[in-house]
Amino acid sequence: MESCDVLIVGGGAAGIAAARAAAEHCWGRILLAERGEAPGGVLLQCAHRGFGPGLTGPEMVDELMKDFPRRVELWYNTTVLRITEEKTALLSGRGIGLRQLAFQRLILATGCRERAFGSLGIGGTRPRGIYTAGQAQALLNQKGRLPEGPVAILGSGDLGLILAGQLSEAGCSIAALVEQKAQCGGMARNRRCLEQYRIPLLCSATVSRVCGGAALEGVMIKDLDTGAERYLPCKSLLIAVGYEPERELVRGLEGAEWLQLCGNCREIHPMIESVITEGKTAGYDCVT
Amino acid sequence: MKHYDAVVIGAGVLGCFAARSLCRWKLSTLLLEGAGDVCTGITRANTAIIYPGYDNRPGSRKARMTVRANAAFPRLCEELEVPYKRCGSLMLSYGPAGDRVLGQKLAQGRENGVSDLQLISGQQAEELEPGLKKGISSALYAPGTGTVNPWQLGIAACENAVKNGCELRLNSPVTAIGRQGKDYIVETAGECFSCAVVINCAGLSADKVQELLFPPRIRIFPDGADYLVLDKNVPAPRHILFHETEEKGKGLTAVPTVEGSLLLGPSRRPLTEPYAVEQKGIEELKAQAAKLLPGLNMDMMIRSFGAVRPKPQMMELRAGEYVPTGRDLGDFPMDRPEPGFFSLIGVKTPGLTCAEELGQYLAAQAAEYLDAEPNPDFDPRRAAIPRPAALPFAERKALVEAEPNYGEVLCLCEDVSRGEIMEAIRRGAVDVEGVKRRTGAGLGRCQGGRCRLLIEALLEEYRHGKL
Question: What is the distance in angstroms between the Cα of A195 and the nearest Cα belonging to chain B?
Answer without folding.
Answer: 30
